[in-house]
Amino acid sequence: MINTTDSRRWGLQTVDHGLHAFDRASGQNALIRNRHTASLQRTAPRVLQIGLLTPCNLHCDFCYRDTSAPSRLDAPFVIELLARAAQWGVLEVAFGGGEPLLFRGFVEMLEELHQATPLGINFTTNGTLLTPDLLARLSGIVGELRVSAYADNHYRRSLRMARGMNVGVNWLVTPANVGMIEPFVYDFLEVGARNVLLLGYKGKDSLLHLREEDFALLKETVSRLQHLPLRLDVCWYPRLADLPHLFARSDCGAGDTFLVITPDRAVQPCSFHHERIPFETFEDLQAIYAGLRSRRPATTTPGCTRAEFSRAESASLSVGVWLWQGRAGNNSGDWTIVGRFREAAEASKAAEALRELARAHEAFLASPEGSQWLLANEYWGNKPTPPLRKFGEAHGFDWTKDGDGLWWEEDGAGAPVLTAGAVGQTVVVYHPYCMGLPEEPFRKFFAAVGAVEFGYWQYDQPHVVAHAHGNNPAALTAIREYLALVDAAQYASEAETPPPWGAECADGRVLDDEDRSARLEKDESHVEQVGDRLTLRLSFQNTFAGALALEAWLKRSGYSEVIIAIEQPLDSLPAAAGPRREPVTNLFGDLRPLAERLASMAPPQVVETLFSFTYNVPDALEQAVARIPLTELVQLGRACWARRRQQGTDVTMQALRIIERAGPAARDWMRELWPILLAEQHQMLGLAVRSMAAALSGDEAFAMAKTWLATVSDRKKRKKCLQSFANLHHRGTIELVEQWWAAAPANEATLDWAPIAAMSEMKWPDISRWLASGRPLSLIALGVLEQYVQRGLPPGYVRPSRHEFRRVLEQCKLQDPAPRASSAVARLLESEAKLTES
Q: Could you give the C-alpha distances from 478 to 122, 500, 538, 809, in angstroms and in order?
């Protein structure tokens, strides 16, 4: 029998008529059902699937994500949410996107989650951003890494790189490839996958849905591969129920055993469900889950089979113990556009106009005005921003159509800025991690400004041809040796040796925040030396950056008369209606990056800029604010706050952030601000409590916070108010929690309260008293001790003797033998060395 008392390994969750144990280290699961578990019910999902953000560096037309959803998730919110989810009973989290590796601070967030919670941590990636260093950091933290395998994402390289980790493959089965399942599965496993998940398409494209004959072939193939580690899409179960499964299923589990959280902070039963319910608080999440679990809604999305499950199978699992291994999963291109002109000068001017457009679009999205526009337009990438509209108008065409947004980055994702530059007579527009570059507006622009040919690629690039005069045998050998390495690799990007011209372009025409890759994308190449004439034909990942790097290297290597061009045939481009226009530059004013503009700003201007933001303050601005002495920052911030308030602008957020940063230097400002916020019953009172804790003494901050509590009568709001007291780290909060529970309904959940009591530095005498008092306080006290095991003891904590500690906990277990309390006691007794006198 497994030992589930080890809290470092096993998480426990009550399920319908059973108890589920999960070991995040090994992926081992155990389900126990007997007469003692018959009355148990599931109270939390087993898995939270979290889509962190919508951007991805691929653009797959079968992807489930809602590409119109903005991201409102950040690492602090996710960490706090999951810490509470673990206490709720959730066993695992599975991150997806978009591409989760584009999420700022993703790895650091996983490290903190692994340290702070017992959750199993998994994520799904397209694999293109994985590196050996990244995988080394993730080892021991991520339970399972899942790689989505597509034709164009170099999944074999990713699997080989991750060999040795617990890595699985997600593969979409369609009518076009259902007959190729067997060779693909064997290849996945041979390259390094430990299991393969076969998925079915959900969406409106009827050509991707399996037909009856496809299901027959799928069933035959899976039957033949039963000895292999295969997993099947749960939505297929009603049509494949006679295949061997671990359990008979009465439902798919959407909104029940798993729950999806979207980037715009909404809840879905599953990732392709049409129903999206916004939430703000953890309590909202719990309430939404309870509703979804009771309703079990099917989706209108084609491919959903929820209504086809047989409820009769719900009773098929009776008494016994079931053991299996498995972890949760979550499902997650580059684009090049070119326009060829008759003259190189024309191409250069057009490229400059497009470069300015990309910068203006980026600056707008990062500005306060852009933030407001995003919310007002429910935007994420789909709608042309004001700079795009202005650019189209200036060039005589309409850039307002839905779906024609420039879609390469979301605020905070860290993706590069669009590259636009001229290679000879051809303008190249490129982005490596792009949700989509719209073809039609670029086609119209190039036609309007006199281009004669046009090309548009996703997951492909044009060929660059270099002609040069000279003969350098060493350089020629270096080129051929590098191309031989590229040819021997599975993919060109796998060649570890950098090209002779360098892995990245050092030319100043490619800026630091743009993609600078000068590596090759394909092994299709041509090298020819005839006399003193050299000809090269190559395909770079970034055509513009690669061409610049190659040109500079050839000149350094002694070649002259270097001509770089794109000689690939393109589509003819008919002239636009009306007279030809000149590309418009200087259309958007000062487009220097914020960091450059901040360098010349005095402190008053820096603070004014800070107060123009509500959320998502850029890192460069944060760094500029940090350079201002605290006393001066408080003086400037207080004056700016007062002035803007008089103008009717709510600038509370930045005021509180400055107060928290400045601490005691802002005590007078905090004393002035608090009664104003209290009189307004401002929505940021909870944040103000945290700022108070930084600026004032503990007792003064606690006394002021209690004035807020005294004004709140609604029980839900009062609970939210009291929960913010955790930021005070004041022992007086313990008494307030006791008063709350003296009037609490018998069925109220206790899971939220242990972190509050722990952060309030609860001491052993109070913990002992609560343990002896029985539920609900005993459960909270057990949670406090578990918090201390994970995070360490608070200042001034006097450890009890080992004898006293054991006596109190054993008595608590006698009073409350239910699984939740008894298992917590067992875990704490195993960790008693951290909590008692040595």
A: 42, 6, 15, 72
